[in-house]
Amino acid sequence: MQHYSGFGLVKHGLSYHENWQRMWRNPLPKHEYDVIVVGGGGHGLATAYYLAKVHGITNVAVVEKGWLGGGNTARNTTIVRSNYLWDEAAWLYEHAMKLWEGLSQDLNYNVMFSQRGVMNLGHTLQDMRDIHRRVNANRLNGIDGEVLDVKQIQEIVPHMDCSANRRYPVLGASWQPRAGVARHDAVAWGFARGADALGVDLLQQTEVTGFRISGGKVLGVETNRGFIGAKTVGCVAAGNSGVLAKMAGFKLPVESHPLQALVSEPMKPILDTVVMSNHVHGYVSQSDKGDLVIGAGIDGYNGYGQRGSYPTIEHTLQAIIELFPIFSRVRMNRQWGGIVDTTPDACPIISATPVGGLFFNCGWGTGGFKATPGSGHVFAATLADGKAHPLAAPFTIDRFISGKLIDEHGAAGVAH
Amino acid sequence: MLHIYCPHCEEYREEEEFRPKGEAHIARPIDPVNTSDEDWGDYLFFRKNPRGLHHEQWFHAAGCRKFFNATRDTVTYEILETYKPGQQPAVTAESRKAQASAQASNQGAAK
Question: Does B45 touch chain A (CB under 8 A)?
Answer without folding.
Answer: yes
